[in-house]
Amino acid sequence: MSNILVLNGPNLNLLGTRQPDVYGRETLSMIEADCIKYGGTRGALISCLQSNHEGALIDAIHAAKSGQQGIVLNAGAYTHTSIALMDAIASVELPCVEVHLSNIHAREEFRHVSYISKVAIGQICGFGSRGYIMGIDALLAHLDMCDDK
Length: 149
Ligand code: DQA
What we know:
The protein has a single domain, classed as Rossmann fold. Helices cover 39% and strands 19% of the residues. The chain is built from 5 helices and 5 strands, in the order E-H-H-E-H-E-H-E-E-H. It has a 5-stranded parallel β-sheet, with helices on both faces. Strand 3, helix 4 (83-92) and strand 4 form a beta-alpha-beta unit. It is globular, with a radius of gyration of 14 Å. 36% of the residues are buried. It binds 1,3,4-trihydroxy-5-OXO-cyclohexanecarboxylic acid.
């Protein structure tokens, strides 16, 4: 059984009411419940966590090292600013799939830069909440591939 952490950063606790035209109407609780349910159908145990604080996200990444096989991460705006989060992912050496609800490349220029991409195995963006399920799939495929080696 794979253990996967679905980690969400700042302002994503407001999903459902936050700019629904950009981020959709699903709440974070709904998205997390879908991830847990989907994980169950794939034999994966999904743990979910959200924080608005950079240090708490870093602590969660460090803690994932003992017990989780990978991370699905939507770092919110820290994506574009946080070298510390990038370093945390590189430090724990866990495969990380970067997820964004919106297509960050079609938005303001400051959103085109992602520090997370530099250490993630890949990025999924622009597919709304379905991106999280796609992220779990991508991570499981990656873990399977590593097991086969
Ligand atoms: C986001 C995109 C970021 O640019 C933004 O700061 C967010 C959400 C997304 O899921 O589309 O908070 O990560």
